[in-house]
Amino acid sequence: MKSFFKFTFASILGVIIGGFILLFLGIIIIAGIASGSDKPVDIKDKSILEIKLNQQLVDRGSDNPMSNFNFFTMSADANIGLNTVLENIEKAKTDEKIKGIYLNVTDIPANFGGMASIEEIRNKLKEFKTTGKFIVSYNNFGHSQKAYYLTSIADSVFLNPEAGLFLLGMGGERTFYRKFLEKIGVEAQVIRVGKYKSATEQYFRDDMSDESREQTMAYVGAMWNQLLEGISEERNITVEKLNQLIDEVAVRKAADAEKYGLIDGVIYEDEMEDKLRKLSDIKENKKLRLVSTSDYANAPDANYKFSKNKIAVIYASGAIGLEQNESSIGPGLAKTIREARLDSTIKAIVLRVNSPGGYANVSDFIWREVKLASDAKPVIASMGNVAASGGYYIACTADTIVADKNTITGSIGIYGLFFSGEELIKEKFGLTTDSYGTNEHAAFGGSYPLMLPISSRKFTPTEKEIVQNIINNGYDTFVSRVAEGRNMTVEQVHEVAQGRVWNAMDAQKNGLVDVLGGLETAIQIAKEKAGVEDYRIVSLPKLKDPFEAIIEELTGKAKIKILKNELGNFYSTYEKTQDLIQLGGIQARIPYEIDLH
């Protein structure tokens, strides 16, 4: 027995020591990656900036090699930052060593970015073309509609002979849960304000309401027209002809795309490389000098000038909840805005909002700090793909609101969603509950015996009335915040509110948006309002340093990494399920997830 314990102890000690050794080695490796990632990159003459959009496109990329480090593969799964792409294109405009841009979109995922982000990149590429440098595009596997819209700005677009190009129109599909909930004995208790606040329809209907369909088709139609007009302008094909080809599904393969003038050639990748050699004046069979966006971000910028004056770009990305991080908005954002307000070297603030909204009270915390900041210095709101409901709430008090033509915004409304599982709990699981309390409403709303956001009973009439009053008061507060920020009357705001979702062009007509444009437009307005000529951009909130990220990866994010590796493509389904659970309670949130293709 003694030897058994001795052996067991030795084994445990060996595992612990081995674990520490592996951790130590891992830290050394990662420290090496971190130290090497910010070294200046030397750009050679006759180079080509290669833009590969093969990861998810986010507003703010991280220069921290640990922000998306995958300990399973010991490599970085970094997202692509819109800010990095725009900065690279701007720098390449005047860089004599960069001959042109190669849009290598072979690995581009269909959901790599929203239409507003794509529009910002496309507009920047259009600006780049005025320098006389080339832009060419190639795809080995075929274009999604959004990807083709982006690459249609190129001087020349090429496809692999076996690749496809399907233009089918823009749309999506929504799932409704009423019958499913009915079968398992759960009922959605919905309390809302506004005829367009359709955030909860999927729980008590089997299809879209007329109001929901009306607002959806308005912004989808506007986006689609924008896409068609952009392709028409660059490819010299009328919108009418494009619609005819689409309705007939006439374009299916690369040869069809070339026949109808949607692309300039059907070639293989080695032939594409030959074209790039000629364009960049590289001799035949010599290696191309392709520079990635991540490398080019570390290349010296000849136009950069240090300035004490700063314009802070504060990123508000993700749903509004209780946690502040790179992909969600929490109360911590209010602290970041407060610090920027009190920093005398920050002359103006650009609040970059890309959010469907979320918790109403957290939205109000952040609104308060934006209001105080706008009283102290210029605050410009820049809207990304979605800045709706709570996302609009936090932006409405800015001095100027800038949105891309394809931004989805509005959705000014509040709803309450509560699930009652009385039948599920009592009839199907055989559980019973018995309430007690010191006062009449001590057991408000019932209990949660399943450890899920499903209560043991429905609201009583009194409870429902109380919650409805809370929702009504929240809506009134929301509308009054917008009225104050936009210099409108409460009646005027109510007319365009009621939870209705708007595209930015209609939102501008309704007074909810001031200027159509992207992040760079917002920064230019901030500069003018601050009255500064020289300035530098600081991005906030500050990102974690590499070693903080290591600890986070080894603790909080470990579960996520395991789930992603196990579930693969089904992880997004799991994520949506978790998101549905978070939709409960009182929310200032866009009606549904917008997933257009």
From TrEMBL:
InterPro entries: ClpP/crotonase-like_dom_sf, Pept_S49_pIV, Pept_S49_SppA, Peptidase_S49, S49_SppA_67K_type_N, S49_SppA_C. Its main location: membrane. It is found in: Membrane. The keyword Protease applies. Residues 133-282, 374-532 form the Peptidase S49 domain. Pfam families: Peptidase_S49. GO terms for cellular component: membrane. The keyword Transmembrane applies. GO terms for molecular function: serine-type peptidase activity. The active site is at residues 197, 389. GO terms for biological process: signal peptide processing. CDD domains: S49_SppA_67K_type, S49_Sppa_N_C. Gene3D superfamilies: 2-enoyl-CoA Hydratase, Chain A, domain 1 (3.90.226.10). The chain crosses the membrane at residues 12-34. Keywords: Hydrolase, Membrane, Protease, Serine protease, Transmembrane, Transmembrane helix. Belongs to the peptidase S49 family. This is Signal peptide peptidase SppA. It comes from Labilibaculum manganireducens.
